[in-house]
Write a sequence for this structure.
């Protein structure tokens, strides 16, 4: 099982690690032509990769992006009031730490296809020591993890789960976000006995799944499909173990047709605004202070995230730029090549049929086939009225019609958001 490569602390309260998939099916997938790194700072998580010129391009994580624009759940507010501020924060942090350990044990099961329960105490003890967690949780977590692993194993057997990758880090270059996907896989429907490709996201909570979980899965699916257009995802699910006594049981909820997914284009636009407001300048105090002969400003160093990352980049080689099936406007291409690009941009659409609907391996989608048959000068009559549109005739006339209808109900009909079909 391949492990993540720790790169370590590069600045006070700022750490970086190179993200590598714990498992990757090279027989089914072609590895993306870039390396991805995770940057954690002050409760905010960025991913980044280098382009062919050695410039870092930054992408906010899916979870960080959603937390910045989603309203706080009323259930969470009630829970926080019940437990008090300090009590709620402690319980939240401990639940997150258990969730991380649970993920690691599920990953071992699905990759190795076996699990030694007699080794669970040592694994848990090592984890608690490494993370400086209190001994008081040991007994409770040990009982819990054994049952949770068995519940996960029951799910794997029920659906004949075969992983395509495990904990794989990816970026979506067009919509400027990134994240680690728990388990893209092939599953067998117990009723129809048909195989389908899915993404399964693990949660440790027992009390159900929330709107943010649905959106997270949809964003992961879009990100996967743009990186692996020949192995697109059909359906996506949240999984969590249940508290059980005699028979291993679990929660499995399909989120593929959630109505909340229609919010994604607007959430991405809001996230872009919030990220633009962030000050990504790093300030450090350095050197020798000399009250008599020096200046205080000589001890202050200010640099951007890009400058910091490039200063710490040692023997890493520049990555090839990721190839995106979807055409981008000349403006977005120009912005992508600018140095020190730390910000995400408003998106020009989200959930079209192309990113979500599966295309059989070895075949081209109708839109791609049609686009190859026409001259670039031919453009859609509706979209041609708007700046920067390069939609070809016949490639998505239905999308253009839908966009025309939506434009009548939106204040800015020139918004690029109108030109994508958001249906799943």
């Amino acid at each position: 099982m391949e492990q993540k490569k720790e790169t370590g602390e590069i600045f006070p309260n700022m750490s970086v690690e190179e993200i590598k998939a714990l498992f990757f099916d090279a027989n089914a997938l072609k590895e993306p032509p870039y390396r991805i790194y995770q940057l954690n700072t002050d409760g905010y998580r960025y991913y980044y990769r280098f382009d062919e010129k050695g410039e870092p391009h930054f992408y906010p994580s899916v979870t960080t992006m959603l937390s910045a624009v989603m309203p706080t759940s009323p259930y969470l507010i009630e829970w926080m009031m019940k437990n008090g501020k300090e009590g709620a924060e402690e319980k939240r942090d401990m639940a997150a730490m258990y969730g991380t350990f649970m993920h690691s044990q599920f990953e071992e099961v699905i990759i190795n296809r076996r699990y030694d329960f007699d080794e669970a105490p040592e694994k848990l003890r090592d984890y608690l020591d490494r993370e400086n967690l209190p001994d008081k949780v040991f007994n409770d977590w040990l009982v819990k993890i054994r049952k949770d692993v068995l519940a996960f194993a029951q799910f794997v057997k029920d659906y004949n789960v075969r992983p395509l990758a495990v904990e794989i880090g990816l970026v979506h270059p067009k919509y400027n976000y990134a994240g680690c996907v728990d388990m893209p896989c092939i599953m067998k429907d117990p009723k129809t006995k048909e195989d389908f490709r899915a993404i399964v996201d693990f949660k440790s909570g027992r009390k159900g799944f929330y709107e943010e979980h649905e959106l997270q899965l949809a964003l992961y699916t879009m990100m996967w499909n743009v990186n692996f257009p020949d192995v697109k995802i059909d359906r996506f699910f949240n999984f969590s173990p249940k508290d059980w006594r005699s028979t291993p049981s679990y929660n499995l909820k399909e989120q593929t047709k959630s109505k909340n997914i229609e919010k994604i284009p607007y959430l991405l636009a809001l996230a872009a605004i919030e990220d633009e407001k962030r000050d990504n300048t790093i300030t450090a105090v350095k050197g020798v202070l000399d009250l008599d002969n020096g200046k205080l400003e000589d001890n202050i160093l200010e640099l951007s995230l890009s400058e910091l990352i490039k200063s710490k980049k040692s023997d890493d080689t520049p990555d090839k730029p990721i190839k995106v099936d979807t055409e981008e406007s000349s403006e977005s291409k120009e912005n992508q090549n600018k140095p020190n690009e730390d910000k995400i941009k408003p998106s020009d659409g989200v959930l079209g049929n192309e990113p979500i609907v599966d295309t059989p391996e070895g075949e081209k989608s109708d839109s791609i086939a049609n686009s190859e048959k026409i001259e670039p000068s031919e453009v859609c009559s509706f979209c041609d009225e708007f700046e920067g549109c390069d939609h070809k005739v016949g490639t998505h006339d239905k999308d253009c019609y839908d966009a025309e209808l939506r434009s009548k109900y939106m204040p800015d009909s020139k918004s690029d958001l109108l030109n994508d079909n958001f249906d799943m």
About this structure: Residues 85-112 form the longest helix (28 residues). Residues 221 and 233 are 7 Å apart (CA to CA).
